[in-house]
Protein 1
Amino acid sequence: MKPRVRREAEVAEAAGEGGRKVRPKARGAESAGGAGQARSCEPLLVEAELRASRVEGAAGEGEEGRAGDGPGVRLVTLTLAAPELARRAEPGQFLLVRTALASSLDPLLRRPFSVCDADPERGEVRIHFQVVGRGTAFLAERRPGERLDVLGPLGRGFSLPRWLRPGEEVLLVGGGAGAAPLPLLALRARAAGLRPVAFLGAATLQALPLAEVLRAAGAEVHLATLDGSAGRRGTVVEALEAWLAGRAPATGPRLLSACGPRGMLLAVARLARRFNLPCQVSLEERMACGLGACLGCHCGQQLAELRAAAGWEEKPAPEPAGVGPRVCADGPVFWLRGGEEESV
Ligand SMILES: Cc1cc2nc3c(=O)[nH]c(=O)nc-3n(C[C@H](O)[C@H](O)[C@H](O)COP(=O)(O)OP(=O)(O)OC[C@H]3O[C@@H](n4cnc5c(N)ncnc54)[C@H](O)[C@@H]3O)c2cc1C
Ligand code: FES
């Protein structure tokens, strides 16, 4: 079945759900978050058929909620038939997915998920998420053949700057389900002739299903688990720090890209400063419109803290009138050090 694709006017109306109709800025437009990062200029609203659903997770009883990635965590991977999204999506961009039946407006707001993988040949996109509440629980119950209402791709994604040379290492760091955008970034890095080295952390091995996906994408994968069930015992940042400390600066990695919980990103930012690595991170805030209109996803304070930790020395770009940087339109990916954002 072919997915139905709606165009811009419909998109803005559906996405707004109370917000203003806006036309997102074109690729490469200036913003508070930097320039030249990947984004497509016209998001699409697609009714995508669910091709596959996989639920994994750590064994044991646990409460749903943002309780971390320990026992009881449910991790879901959904594969959607959406050829145009697959063709356009860039690493680090996200999709807004409706999490209610067609007959219901509850919950009203779509939920954001990073594009985990995009395969233009198969016409498929994949998202990977942790069940934390109503919206994600709804999606976890969907079955192949059902259709999901998806808006995207949205936001500014990760960059692979032109100054990277073939054969150079690029570091990808992810915590828990926050690592979702890394497989597509690893694929693009490989395609650009780079060597992606991924560090993944979680409470326990079962909460790390993306490790295999990243290996399949061509990345060298290092794991860290709090219970020691896989890789180094401890946090992913400790594993990364030990690895970086053992590298000669001249032959070490040239770029650090990270996504995960705030505490992890702060620790990554400090490592970027200590090892003098250009660093880009994907941020999360609760979202409403997803198009920059409702101003509901400010991340100015979070970004300032991260940039301070990373030793940001340049004057930040001017903010849009009256607004701080927004995760949905100026991010979700932001540079923490330097302005070398030109993409390959
Ligand atoms: C750009 C972006 C990309 C994202 N990509 C992914 C992804 O690839 N995989 C993934 O697992 N999650 C991702 N998230 C987070 C995901 O959107 C939320 O977990 C989801 O919206 C929760 O919906 P829910 O209805 O299940 O939970 P709710 O019932 O809305 O909330 C449940 C609990 O989760 C907390 N929560 C909800 N949304 C967020 C948020 N955005 N940030 C922090 N806490 C939140 C709430 O405060 C509450 O405690 C992303 C968020 C953003 C902004
Ligand atoms: S969610 Fe509306 S501005 Fe970001």
Note: Residues 65-66, 94, 111-114, 128-130, 132-136, 177, 180, 284-287, 327, 332 surround flavin-adenine dinucleotide (ligand 1) (CB under 6 Å).
Protein 2
Amino acid sequence: MGSTPAIAVPASASTASLPAPLPPAAIMLARRLVMTSGGRNTGARRNVLACLIASDRALSHADIEAQLIETGLDRVTLYRVLDWLVEHSLAHRVGTAGGASGIERAMRFAFTRPEKPHSHAHFQCTQCGRTICLDDVAAPALTVPAGVELQGIELAAFGRCSHCRNAAATGAGSQPL
Ligand SMILES: [Zn+2]
Ligand SMILES: [Zn+2]
């Protein structure tokens, strides 16, 4: 098999920086969902959606770019693809309300599981920012004042993720809880 020995890098560093390959099941599901949405089954759409499907957390633009760096995905295409996925209810934005209000940098994206409530709670780690869909917790139906157009509901839970808890437990063992 074509094993290409790269530049000498410590083994731990090289494995940590390499994006994990997308699981074939995620790519197959992504292809099917893009096609049933009536869209052209482009490689970019398929890969970005597969990336979201395979992730156990919501991903930022930078996370997705890093994951798909080898596919040569450019930023403009990534933004367009994410807009398309959101428009077609295959993905949702997490963590922000206003589109062009400057807080876009914190925006993350997650796969919208067809069988789960589309409007659901999200957990965010206060230490590392890891954001996870709590898609069994549906957002309540809200009654809004007349004339108000409700565009979404953010139901936010926060705390420490398992990674940060473990790091704290093993790192500073003497920390009283
Ligand atoms: Zn964390
Ligand atoms: Zn979500």
Note: The chain has one domain: 20-171.
